[in-house]
Design brief:
With about 650 residues, this protein is of the alpha+beta class. About 50% of the residues lie in helices and about 10% in strands. The radius of gyration is 29 Å and the shape is globular.
């Protein structure tokens, strides 16, 4: 059977990752070629409203059109969700992909060959997995990666056909019927079967060495460590296709079936790490759960493939699963794109309890709303749903899923008498505070939400252990300083960008910074006057400083730092959304060129007053946290008193 004879779904070969970020020319070419009204209108209904278009926002339960699309500026904005951006942002948000993949998907849509992919001779770009496809020992990207996606799509199709049609898979079909997995689920999740034949896949490719090498690269074929011929890695197993968020097959999970005759002792075997497959950055079922995640803003994370499939059958279409590993940082980052809350659903056995304790630090370190539901002893989600139904499972989620902090407290204090066992209570508190210490330390640019989160956690710890909150905070400070002293100091490259958190960066901008940004976007020609008085290094790290530095760099390069230029400079959706809001606000104020100089002078004066106040606040926080030696504490107190006298003197002279 020829590979080329099989049709490969378009969704399986689109969106390959480009090696490194493409140039601004690439981004500008794609942006100009893709009309945002046409793009968004192909996915949700839009109607004209004045100069703009409006539609129902896909990210919240929208009944009154909240999404606005601006054809002149080629941008969109939902003022309820506070999400906005350009064509790249839309694809990143709606597809749950990173910028580079969004760029490639839009380039495919527009028929544009990105510069980083041009001139690659010898590559098969026809969309078929054929004899011209090759891979090398070098890092795989571009067309090479497309070849791997096509190979995986082809392999998935063969395994799926085997499960549905071939007599060798009858016992697999019987197993699925026994687990009450429906024909619709078999199609929806692309289940498959690999016959217990060492060379079944090799015979399909007619022992072609080039194609065998490709299938080895994606983990379908393997070779003995001692050398020898290829063999089917998943022979004799029921196969669960593992797809990425764009529904491209990237790996398999294989469950051994007793009737298959295989001698393997491993119940489950996953694909090895490949250029497409990394189990710490993939979730089973994410491709079919995206809509459910968007609607509920809650992710149900389970442990087994069949658990996810059966959960979807019972209406819980926001269920996904980890791939034979603990819920980790990579999984959290993926889920935070789609959901605000994560519920970890664990089997009611001892192993499930251990896994719960392994992830307790995640909710703090990743600053995520994480709850844990432990099922009744001896049950897993699949068995529970079949036995008790969807209503009972919903009730468990509502009544028994507890916050990760509560679960942590229950775990570390189980069997302890907190009133009388002083040593045990002290150890338990130390464990809890050490978990909180994993969170980023509060700084001057920490969001209000994160400050409130830490305050509530410390208040709850103080109440649980019946001690003063000040004592808990002091212990937290000690642990963080101890960890900081052990951590090696790494210098950040001068050209490395400041990190931007996933949350809305507008929370990190004070009113003065907002006003300066609005002015710069409306009147970019006033930038030299601003730069003469305000240096970039005087700004707080964060969005304003990044935008200001970018404006300055563009000006130094001879370009006007206009809105369109800035939108191409930033890839993060949060930054694009911020630029749109600031531009809208500045236009609404109708800032006139004649008023610019006077307004700038007032803003600059306010900036210096605010900078002095910020330094004062930081000194007060340092005193409050404690742990300073006497001389440093005295120095800070004297500085605060001197600043306060100066501030009052300025205030009196102003009043007079």
């Amino acid at each position: 059977m020829e590979f080329a004879a099989l049709a490969i779904p378009e969704t399986a070969i689109r969106g390959s990752i480009v090696s490194g970020y493409s140039s601004l020319d690439d981004k500008e070419s794609v942006r100009q070629a893709v009309d945002i009204v046409e793009l968004i209108g192909s996915q949700i209904p839009l109607r004209r409203q004045g100069r703009n278009y409006v539609g129902l926002c896909p990210w919240h339960d929208d009944t009154k059109p909240s999404l606005q699309v601006n054809p002149e500026r080629q941008s969109f904005k939902c003022w309820v969700c506070d999400i906005g951006g350009d064509v790249f942002t839309w694809v990143m948000k709606i597809e749950g992909v990173e910028f580079r993949e969004a760029l490639q998907m839009l380039a495919d849509r527009a028929g544009i060959q990105l510069r980083s992919l041009r001139g690659r001779a010898g590559q098969n770009a026809s969309g078929e997995f054929g004899a011209g496809d090759t891979v090398s020992g070098e890092p795989i990207s571009g067309e090479g990666k497309r070849t791997l996606y096509k190979a995986m799509a082809w392999a998935e199709q063969q395994y799926h056909r085997c499960l549905l049609e071939l007599p060798e898979a009858e016992h697999a079909r019987e197993y699925l019927r026994g687990r009450d997995i429906t024909a619709e689920s078999i199609e929806k999740f692309h289940l498959g079967f690999s016959p217990n034949q060492r060379d079944w896949m090799l015979r399909l490719i007619e022992n072609n060495p080039g194609r065998a090498k490709i299938l080895e690269t994606v983990g379908v074929l393997a070779r003995p460590q001692t050398g020898g011929n290829y063999y089917d890695r998943f022979r004799g197993r029921l196969l669960f296709s593992i797809r990425d968020s764009q529904a491209r097959p990237v790996g398999f999970g294989g469950r051994v079936l007793p009737e298959s005759g295989t001698t393997s002792q491993a119940k489950y075997v996953n694909s090895p790490e490949t250029p497409l497959f990394s189990k710490s950055n993939l979730l089973y079922g994410l491709d079919v759960a995206r809509e459910g995640l968007r609607k509920t803003r809650t992710a149900l994370v389970m442990e087994g493939y069949t658990d996810v499939i059966v959960a979807h059958q019972y209406g819980f279409d926001n269920a996904v699963a980890v791939l034979g590993t603990a819920l980790g940082e990579g999984h959290i980052k993926i889920l935070k794109r789609f959901a605000d809350r994560i519920v970890l659903v664990l089997d009611g056995d001892e192993a499930g309890q251990r896994r719960a304790n392994e992830v307790l630090e995640l909710f703090v370190a990743q600053q995520v709303d994480l709850s844990i539901l432990t099922l009744p002893e001896g049950t897993d989600p699949c068995d529970f749903l079949h036995k008790h139904g969807a209503e009972a499972f919903s009730k468990l989620l509502e009544e028994k899923a507890i916050g990760a902090l509560d679960h942590a407290f229950q775990a570390v204090t189980r069997g302890l008498d907190l009133e009388h066992d002083v040593h045990g209570a002290t150890q338990a508190l130390e464990r809890m505070v050490s978990i909180v210490a994993k969170a980023p330390r509060l700084r001057h640019d920490t969001t209000g939400a994160d400050r409130f989160r830490e305050e509530k956690i410390l208040q709850r710890l103080a109440a649980w252990f019946r001690i003063d909150e000040k004592d808990v905070r002091q212990r937290l400070t000690v642990l963080r300083r101890r960890a900081s002293s052990r951590r090696p100091t790494l210098s950040r490259p001068e050209d490395a960008p400041e990190a931007v958190a996933d949350e809305n960066p507008i929370e990190r901008i004070d009113p003065l910074e907002r006003e300066l940004l609005e002015l710069l976007l409306c009147q970019p020609e006033c930038l030299p006057e601003v730069r003469a008085d305000i240096k970039a290094e005087k700004m707080l790290p964060g969005p304003f400083r990044r935008i200001y530095e970018t404006c300055s760099r563009l000006a130094d390069e001879g370009a006007t730092p206009e809105f369109d230029h800035l939108m191409l400079e930033f890839d993060e959706p949060a930054m694009k959304s911020l630029l749109i809001e600031l531009d809208e606000a500045g236009r609404a104020k109708g800032i006139r060129e004649a008023d610019t100089h006077a307004l700038l002078q007032e803003l600059i004066k306010t900036f210096y007053r605010q900078e002095a106040e910020r330094q004062r606040t930081e000194q007060i926080v340092a005193l409050r946290e404690g742990g300073l030696d006497d001389s440093r504490e005295t120095e800070l107190l004297e500085n605060i008193i001197r600043q306060e006298r100066n501030r009052q003197g300025i205030s009196k002279s102003t009043d007079g």
